[in-house]
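Before relying on records like the one below, remember that each one covers exactly one chain. Contacts with other chains, cofactors or solvent are not represented anywhere in the record.
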Amino acid sequence: MMMNDGAMDLRRLELLLELSRLGSMRAVADVMHVTTSTVSQQVATLAREVGTPLVEPEGRRVRLTPAGRRLADHAVTILAAVEAARADLDPAATPVGTLRVAAFATAVRRSLLPVVRRLAETHPDVRILVHEHEPAEALGLLAADEVDLALTYDYNLAPTTFDPSLSAVPLWSAAWSLGVPSRSPRVRGASPAILEAFRGRDWIVNSRNTADEEVLRILASLAGFAPRIAHRADSLELVRDMVVAGLGVGLLPAGQPTGRGVSLRSLTDPGVVLRSFAVTRRGRQDWPPLALVLRRLTRSAEESARPAVPHAGGRPGCPGVRPGRTPEHRSGPAG
């Protein structure tokens, strides 16, 4: 990339960054409150300044060239530094921009949507794009810089180790139990004893994430057997229905109504605890829209003590939500 002499206009960098996020000059024009022709002209001027094409046609739309994507990556850091400097000089500076979030379904409902509703009133110039994904999918998007924030989860018995390039902040945690048919025999004891009582049953696990299967295999190994994984489902309601139908048993959130036909067996010593995290690329947390949303998410997690509303869609559910107290994960391969 050949840089011509002269200063680079920050407004043009901002337009290019929004184009990389939204993929349409018309969408950029709508968000930035300018005309589509202005966006086109400013991006063309920026291309002349850096001495290389930044966009190329793709049907009726445009996409960034490799050089354009590289410059957009630099724009994140440059604009964040400028905004940080402005905020340092003007603490009342208002965050503006489009924030892309990938999150598992319960985190969307439990954590993100309340923030979206509040920001619509307090910070209307911060736009949040929501993508529902399981943790591995969300972390992949974050690593590829296709989202700015990932809301993920793991279990205490199957912890995630995050890549050193990522920063993970604990949000809330929730206990899980074993869901079994209501007429199953009552068993007392620690988790291995509970699983031992159902060793001959088929087991139901998540179809889009392996964390709960890892937890089951760990607990079963403590009881001296390997669980027979027979069914996979991504909906908690479907798991409950499968338990009622006698297809098997599986992990379900503790403290939530299960409906007729399903009972929960508490898992203790060791317990099973789901932990949620807000994950960002290291060095990006100070970008004002992202910093704002992170503050709202952590504040909400700290203030919230009520059970989550059961979610009819994707796993996992999050009853008995408690603020996370897990130390920040900082090293290891991305999970």
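Residues 171 and 324 are 5 Å apart (CA to CA).
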